[in-house]
Every structure is written in C-alpha cells, then in structure tokens.
Write a structure and sequence with these properties.
mainly alpha; 74% helix; 0% strand; 204 residues; globular
C-alpha cells in the first residue's frame, strides 16, 4: 500500500504516462487525417508532422507542427511544476524529467514505440536548468538556420546543453541530464547513420 501512496512513485507513473501522450499522432489524425507514423521519417515529433502534413496543406502543417512542439514540451514541464508544488526533492524532479522523456520515446499508447524526446527534454530542462536550456536552444537555432537539418540541430543543441551544464552548474548532479542526452542520441541513431552517409534531408 505504501508503494501506491508514495508521492514520488505517483509522480513517476504520471510522468511516464503523460510523457507518452503522442500529440503529433493525435493532432495529425484529428485535423489532417494523416498517420505520421506511416510517412516521412515515421517519427511522431513536430518535424515529421511538418514534413508529412505539408504535402497536403502547408499552412495546416505549420500550425500542427507548432502545436505538437508546444504540447510535447509542456507535458513534461507541467508535471515537474506540479511536483514542485508538493516540495519533492530535486533528484525526484530530475527523475520525473527522465521518465517523461522515456514515456515519449517508448509510449505505452503506441506499443512502446514513440518519438525522439527532444521537445520533451526542452520542456524539462527549461524548468530545471534554464540557463543550460537557453544555451542548447541557441545552438539548436544557429545550426538549424545554417544547415536546415533537423536532426543535426537537435543533436547539437542537446550536446551543448549537456556539456554546458558541467561549466554552468558544476555542482549539480549531471547524471540525469547525461541520461536524457543518451536517450535522445540513441533514438537518433538512424539519423546519425544517414548524416554519416550524407543522406539526411534538410527541412524546407
């Protein structure tokens, strides 16, 4: 019974379940009648929503992509914010962040398939390590502008945030952030292979 009523355990379960809500799939199906898992990169994230829906309706694609990005980012941030109201420990907050990303990447609603975790990570880090998040977003924006390759900009931003944390906040426990980075890089392995081969496509 204590396991069920433990506040940390409750937040861990909620973080994983809420993190697993596939907003990209839901929005694209509802408003465009498209299953993004069947086209493009087959990812459920904002970039693939933009790429796939754009073929049908460019204006709608931008709206749905932006909505997917916002929802995927805020679903983790909201859970962390609520947990803060319960005055849980910092280690618990970081565990919630990691579990939300795991939920997104291995969603219980998609037979444990999912996205790549970038937006969900952004939402978490903005709350828990805002300076690191700003550094990561700045690098992401610069690379995205220069190369227009979504995977490259995402990986560069994540790497900048993780490495930057060791200089910006040397006193923090870096393990959760490193784990988040590892998950994102792991989910990007197909993209990394295409980058190495020069086959990764730019986002128009």
């Amino acid at each position: 019974m204590e396991f069920i009523t433990n506040i940390n355990i409750i937040f861990y379960i909620v973080a994983y379940v809420v993190g697993g809500i596939p907003f990209g799939v839901l929005l694209a199906k509802k408003f465009a009648g498209i299953d993004v898992r069947q086209s493009g990169s087959k990812s459920i994230g904002a970039t693939n929503v933009l790429r796939v829906v754009k073929e049908k309706d460019p204006k709608l694609a931008k709206k749905l992509s932006a909505a997917t990005l916002i929802f995927d980012a805020t679903k983790s941030a909201i859970i962390i914010g609520i947990a803060m109201l319960f005055d849980v420990k910092e280690a618990t907050l970081w565990s919630i962040a990691v579990l939300a990303i795991m939920g997104h990447c291995w969603s219980p609603f998609l037979k444990f398939n999912g996205g790549k975790g970038v937006a969900t990570a952004i939402g978490s880090i903005l709350v828990l390590a805002p300076i690191e998040a700003v550094v990561g977003l700045a690098v992401w924006a610069f690379v995205a502008k220069a190369l227009k390759i979504s995977s490259m900009s995402s990986l560069s931003g994540v790497l900048a945030a993780v490495i930057g944390s060791f200089f910006i906040s040397p006193e923090m426990n870096h393990a959760p952030l490193v784990i988040m980075g590892f998950i994102i890089f792991y989910k990007h392995i197909p993209n990394i292979m295409r980058l190495i081969k020069g086959e990764e496509k730019a986002v128009a």
